[in-house]
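Title: Prediction job returns without error message
Component: structure pipeline
Severity: low
Priority: P3
Assignee: unassigned

Description:
Job completed but the reporter wants confirmation the result is attached to the right record. Sequence as submitted:
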Amino acid sequence: MSALNSISRIVSINISRGGIPKTPVPVVRLTVAGLEGDGHNHAKHKTPFQAVCIQDLEKLEELSQGGYILSPGKAGENLTVEHLHVNSLPLGTVLEFSGGVILEISKARKPCYVMDAIHPRLKTDALGRHGMYARVVTEGILSVGETIAVKLSPEKSRFANP
């Protein structure tokens, strides 16, 4: 199946009490605050605009080909997805998951200092391909394998964090 005809889906759901790496789980409850069981103890993670971090599996694989060993959750993302191309989605894009959860892309993710533990150059090499943050529009249960429908917003979201 070509990437153009591929269906976007969740390949890994990742949580931790804080920091990286995050541990994959098959199912999780999602609230406005984020994934239950995932640490949000740092001030920058206590905002609804950064409730969920989404990363493309293809970008992790690309970075791995550059010499970094990155598996789902190792870089701190909550959702590892495939065929979504999340970094190319504009702010305000709505993601509808087949289980009923709805997210809205709210902010570009910048590589964090904790990535120094993986490799000192990873932050620099990951710029522009480190995923996006999303806010929770509709709470619910997320499961690995769920498909994702993309609804592009005709205008910048009123919820997007500048």
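Comment from assignee: result matches the submitted record. The CA atoms of residues 13 and 116 lie 23 Å apart.
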